[in-house]
Design goal:
Elements lengths: L2 E6 L2 E3 L8 E3 L4 E3 L5 E3 L1 H17 L1 E8 L5 H10 L3 E5 L9 H15 L4 E5 L10 H9 L3 E11 L4 E8 L2 E8 L2 E5 L11 H7 L4 E4 L42 H14 L4
Parallel strand pairs: 1-6, 1-8, 6-7, 7-13, 8-12, 9-12
Antiparallel strand pairs: 2-5, 3-4, 9-10, 10-11
Helix pairs in contact: 2-5, 3-4
The structure holds flavin-adenine dinucleotide.
């Protein structure tokens, strides 16, 4: 049996440039202006895991994202890694979604994209960072879910997967039936970088764009998506005060090293 795998990928601001993010205390919104978007790091590992499973069992890997038109880029990146096709859930009606409304639209998008045996997610995004979407997605689909997963072995013929789930101080072995939503941690694998050939091939692969007008049978009420379908309200945002100071220690290397050790001792760091 070959496996139909779908991977949820989210576009996020480049974590390397998070120090450029500012908060607007009046509107409660996050100003990400000018920060280049990238694929959420954990989601790259989820794509890698899907490709690894496909290499063993055969089947297909679909990547799906909900986001603005420019989120297409993270689908293209996943296609260049080797995924087979992409689905972009893009509509103004999805804007302003909290995790519940995000999960509702992702579930509707997954249903309209076809039948799947396995849905992989990153365990957590680096921007919203709630880690709630995979669980809410599974609940909405009516599927089981396993989060914090560091190892997956799919027993396709037996319609189940054996997974290792990290917990504090150890791990759990979980035996779960398919279809299932699994959220993976970054330690699960090292993801491959796209090759030139992969990038060229990605241009020939299909990305389907789905909005409300093209997804009439998804069964999702207008009030269940976007800001209107989001029970979470941000009541305040605060910029953590930074208390960094820099002191340059000059002089000859030997003297500078002595002075540094002395200072670290005084601070109780040594
Ligand atoms: C306090 C707060 C306020 C927010 N306010 C706004 C707002 O005003 N407007 C706004 O637009 N957004 C807002 N967001 C962002 C939005 O709610 C989240 O980006 C979205 O719901 C996903 O939540 P998360 O990033 O915590 O995902 P997590 O649960 O941490 O993500 C886990 C995994 O779920 C999958 N996933 C998550 N989101 C997507 C997606 N969009 N497409 C595909 N896969 C996905 C990925 O595999 C990801 O690795 C806010 C978030 C928070 C925490």
């Amino acid at each position: 049996m070959s496996l139909r795998i779908l991977v949820c990928v989210k576009q996020v601001p480049d974590p390397e440039q998070f120090d450029r993010i500012t908060l607007d205390p009046d509107t409660g919104s996050i100003n990400r202006g000018g920060i280049p978007p990238v694929t959420n790091p954990a989601d790259r590992h989820a794509v890698e895991e899907a490709l690894r499973i496909r290499e063993i069992l055969g089947g297909s890997v679909t990547v799906l994202t909900m986001g603005p038109p420019q989120a297409r880029k993270c689908l293209e990146d996943a296609l260049a890694m080797g995924a087979d096709r992409g689905v972009l859930l893009c509509d103004m009606a999805f804007a302003g979604a909290d995790t519940l409304a995000t999960a509702a639209v992702l579930a509707a998008g997954i249903r309209s994209a076809g039948e799947f045996d396995l849905v992989l997610c990153g365990n957590e995004s680096v921007d919203g960072a709630t880690g709630q979407v995979p669980a809410q997605l599974a609940e909405t689909l009516g599927w089981p879910r396993v989060t914090h997963v560091r190892k997956i072995e799919v027993k396709a013929e037996e319609n189940r997967a054996l997974v290792e789930r990290e917990i504090e101080g150890g791990f759990l072995r979980v035996d779960v039936t398919l279809p299932v939503v699994i959220a993976v941690v970054k330690r699960i694998n090292r993801y491959r970088l796209p090759t030139i050939f992969g990038i060229l091939e990605a241009g020939k692969k299909e990305i389907v764009e789905v909005g409300c007008a093209t997804c009439e049978n998804c069964g999702l009420a207008a009030g269940a998506m976007g800001l209107g379908g989001s029970p979470t309200r941000v009541v305040g945002v605060f910029q953590a005060p930074r208390k960094r100071r820099v002191e340059m220690i000059g002089g000859e290397p030997r003297d500078a090293a002595r002075a540094l050790v002395q200072k670290l001792r005084e601070m109780g760091a040594l």
